[in-house]
Amino acid sequence: QLPPGKLAQGVAMKCPGPPENSRLACFLENALVREARIWKVPIFQNLTLKGTDISPSCYEKTVLWIAEINSQFQFHSETFALSISILNRLLASVKARLKYLQCIAISCLVLAAKTNEEDE
């Protein structure tokens, strides 16, 4: 007898029955509700990022700068996308000042590279 979650080689996994399907559906629905509740996106208000002095053009320049650095280091496109996702999540959560934006952005790229790029 194998422990739950372990499969013997060559043994097909059984399809769950109706009770397990409804539990899975409930779990996924709860996960979506939770994600919708906690997900934040940066909001620009009065031509600056809400609560900061970061304008859309400064944000755009920063994203393009990160894209350039990503290209120079020949990182994967997924690394760039993850770095911008991290940047957006951070800017939505923290009131960042314009003078720290490049430092924050490069830190996001480093985190993304540590996650996605292989050691060489």
UniProtKB/TrEMBL annotation:
Residues 47-118 form the Cyclin N-terminal domain. The keyword Kinase does not apply. Pfam families: Cyclin_N. Keywords: Cyclin. InterPro entries: Cyclin-like_sf, Cyclin_N. SUPFAM superfamilies: Cyclin-like (SSF47954). It comes from the Eukaryota. This is Cyclin N-terminal domain-containing protein.
